Amino acid sequence: MNGRRPGTAGGSARQIWSLGGGKGGIGKSVLAAALGYELARMGKRVILIDADLGGANLHTCLGMGAPEKTLGDFILRRVERIEDVLVETGFRGLRLISGASDFLGAANIKHLQKVRVLSRIRSLDVDVVILDLGAGTAFNIIDFFLISDVGLLTLVPEPTSIESGYRFLKAALYRRLRAVAPTEAIRQIVDAAGDRKNSLGIRTPLDLLNTVAMEDQRALEPLRREMAAFHPRFVLNQVRDEEDGVIGHQLVTACARHLGIAAAYAGSVRFDDTVWKSLRQRRLFAVDAPTSQAAEDVRRLARALSGGENLAIEWA
Ligand SMILES: Nc1ncnc2c1ncn2[C@@H]1O[C@H](COP(=O)(O)OP(=O)(O)OP(=O)(O)O)[C@@H](O)[C@H]1O
Ligand SMILES: [Mg+2]
């Protein structure tokens, strides 16, 4: 998630967005569906992927029945190509790779299967791929978040969600740092840091850097570089109070102070009865009520996130 990926020859940058958040039931799936729909309406070619391998339901958010072919069929090699599990949503420009309803869950996807899926997702020929992630901080969920160019950390303005979101980001950061650890000794320090009660006394990523510096000064640079390239963006959902918006900015400050990373606040979506009312009828609120507050907010978010020619500019 580094925003450095160059644009494709067609001019529009091919990007992977993901919606994570650590906690369940906060709106990752409905926002993924609505963002995909709005981007498609803006003329982009979009593929939504239900990467919630344990609890796939993105198709329901789009008003569809469970598709016959799913990501599970690709993971288990029942089909050859990831394109073979693509289905039309009925909305122009928007296609879906449905989650694996018959699959046992994220915990069961093996490393090589994951590498294959991630590389095939990257090669899909569209403008934007949106990954809807499951709840929790399992490596398989975090790895999907980390391949994204735009990692959207979804939160609702409640302490439990904020705690989960923070844990999610910390786990994601350590996972990134582990991947660039140049030696086994440094990898072990990063692994130890992941345990809150570790005996090395590492409580924050900044403590981790200090410990690494004492062990091997040369190992510091790749880790620092990795931290500097990590730019998650917060999306605050189910906002009921104007003042809740402040939370987004506070989180950015807290990330810089406690995690040493430059996060950004992407925007908020108001709590809106049309969202759950539409879902109850197996319909997408953005389609049903395009002038509703939540639909307006998602549209604004979609424009802001895809705005400009290149999302990397913000971080250049
Ligand atoms: N802005 C909103 N206003 C009102 N209701 C909302 C809003 N966003 C989400 N909801 C409701 O919250 C519920 C949970 O949404 P959703 O299934 O998208 O969460 P999730 O984060 O994907 O959960 P899980 O981790 O279990 O997959 C749904 O009933 C949805 O209608
Ligand atoms: Mg979901």
* Rg, nearest Å: 19 Å
Q: What compounds sit in this structure?
A: adenosine-5'-triphosphate, magnesium ion
**What fraction of residues sit in β-strands?**
5-15%
Mean pLDDT figure: 89
Helix content: 40-55%
**Assigned CATH superfamily of the largest domain:** P-loop containing nucleotide triphosphate hydrolases
Count of distinct strands: 8
* Tally of DSSP helical segments: 13
CATH names the topology of the largest domain as Rossmann fold
Protein architecture, described:
It contains 13 helices and eight strands. The chain has an eight-stranded mixed beta sheet, sandwiched between helices. It has two domains: 176 residues, 3-Layer(aba) Sandwich (Rossmann fold); 116 residues, no CATH class. With 316 residues, the chain is an alpha/beta fold. Helix 10 links the parallel strand 7 and strand 8. The longest helix is centred in the middle third of the chain and has 22 residues. 43% of the residues lie in helices and 14% in strands. Bound molecules: adenosine-5'-triphosphate and magnesium ion (MG). Magnesium ion binds next to helix 1. Adenosine-5'-triphosphate binds next to helix 1, strand 7 and helix 11.
